[in-house]
Amino acid sequence: MTLNDIYHSLNPVAISLGPLQVHWYGLAYLLAFVLGGVIIYKLQNRWRLKLDADEIMSVIVGIALGVIVGARLGYVLFYGAGYYLQNPLEIFMLSQGGMSFHGGLVGAIVGGSIACRTLGISIRTMIDLGVIAAPLGLFFGRCANFVNGELWGKPSDLPWAVVFETGGNVARHPSQLYEALLEGLVIFIVLFALSRKNPPRPQGTFLGTFLVLYGVFRFAVEFVRMPDAQLGYLFGFVTMGQLLSLPLIVVGIIELVLAARRGWSQRGHVAGWDTTDTD
Question: Helix H segments across the chain?
């Protein structure tokens, strides 16, 4: 059975209960947050950070809200091409798709940081823990993109090329799966391997590594992925995904340099923050 056969045997709807339909894309988000919470809890135990399950759950909720809001706003701002200015109510129609990783990343950091500040948890350490788990969410999300037949690649005659229903009668690169493997599995394996050192590597090491690897992989895959139809190629040769990935590489390199110079140790709670004071 070829990859094309596998794609055409898949249904974007995972569960149907009368009028209720649960899509694989929604399940991918749910699985990402649940598995992410488990990984963070296991790693903080290994790092001896003394965070409890309730604290981690609260941070995960903050991250989840930040991801959803940030990813949607990122798509509206960077990929909407003015459409949402004329149709503002459709910003809230998440079921119609349209989520941006770069916006979701910013949203996750903001949402998670707010939760950490409330609980007196080290924001930098939690970001490092979060980016170790994040690639698995990317993996599930890109697989869901493949099932949905969206974000496909350029025409290809490779044996694993796929004819997507929305892409015309043309075999194309399954660029969603390229991203799932590179941005998902490869980055997770690298970061998880780095996390095995005890005491853990300095704060910022994991964030910097994640940003550099994601930026490089996303930039590379964009060469075989079709640009968003409403935008096309910016300046005639670069996609929006590539343009937004360049700053990630630069920031990631800076973060790695600073992490090596500062050598700040990973820590759980921040000393001096009284999280029980409600005045």
Answer: 3-8, 24-46, 53-79, 83-86, 101-119, 123-148, 175-179, 187-195, 205-221, 240-262
